[in-house]
Design brief:
By secondary structure, chain A is mainly α. Chain A has 6 helices and 3 strands; from the N terminus they run ααβααββαα. In chain A, about 60% of the residues lie in helices and about 10% in strands. The first copy, chain A, binds a DNA duplex through helix 3 and helix 4.
Chain lengths: ~150, ~150
DNA sequence: TTGCTTTGGTTGGTACTACCAACTATAACT
DNA sequence: AGTTATAGTTGGTAGTACCAACCAAAGCAA
């Protein structure tokens, strides 16, 4: 596992896949966390903005996307709403449900974050050739797509 | 960015590298978080155990590894110590410093976690051929190694 | 050597995350 | 209609992570 920055000591470039996946996850999450912090957001809030960028969801959908307790979502959305990042509105079809979607300000935030993230990732993948980048995208895609049918 | 599980809708398997990296990071982090939760740990505590698995560090080193505020580390280590996962001892060479290292129980925990993680990752990479797995490890390694010289 | 600065860690306080259990209200089922 | 299931909220707890303020040992300087 070895979540540290230097768990696989130099030399063995191929490393072990477990370490590589865990480490790249931590690196990416670290970057995302920093990115969020720079924009005065938490990682979870950043996720919410990202998810809502091209969707209008009910609370319960958001729960599915994030895999968190509903009370957690309530608080999350409430704080984000208070900050003007997103809006709540009753769902037209279901009297129990509440829809959530980005406000103007939230959308602007989300766009900026997406751009920043893109910049970070390209910096991270700079060391790879274009072919390698494609290859990496394909492999990760193949690994992940089974998870969301 | 699109941190969601299904941000890149079906079809374009190659996806876009940014999405793929972010998503695989979230998937991996999700698994790590679940793994940690099953063992009654937080993600950060799991990281600490992973880092200390083959090291004895001073607090300040731990700060570097985790990239968190020192007061955060103090609390983290204090709670883990109270739970018997790790030990604190004054550093022999520097009167100000405190060494941190795994207890027996902490070590056992860490081993178990490493095994569980390995199991999870292999399940995740099951869809890949052996050659693809190697390739993925190489690419991730190449991408990450520059970050820890 | 005495005094100033830097480094290593802790303490106290705040905001947020995330969980659980208990609750209200609408919807769906029989 | 009456029961059951679903959608969200509220209240309470533990943990994460930050900041500012602090103490003590170490390093450096005059």
């Amino acid at each position: 596992m070895s979540a540290s920055r230097r768990s696989s000591e130099a030399g063995q470039v191929e490393g072990n896949l477990i370490d590589m996946l865990a480490q790249s996850a931590f690196v990416t999450m670290g970057a995302l966390t920093r990115l969020a912090a720079e924009n005065d957001l938490s990682l979870t809030q950043l996720r919410v903005l990202a998810i809502l960028r091209d969707r209008r969801l009910r609370m319960s959908d958001l729960i599915d996307y994030l895999g968190l307790e509903k009370s957690t979502i309530t608080g999350l959305v409430a704080r984000a709403e208070k900050r003007g990042l997103l809006c709540r509105a009753p769902n037209a079809a279901d009297g129990r449900a509440i829809d959530v979607f980005l406000s103007e300000e939230g959308r602007a935030h989300a766009e900026r974050l997406a751009a920043d993230l893109a910049r970070f990732v390209s910096q991270l993948t700079d060391v790879l050739t274009v072919a390698e980048r494609d290859q990496l995208g394909i492999l990760l895609g193949k690994m992940i797509t089974p998870l969301h049918p």
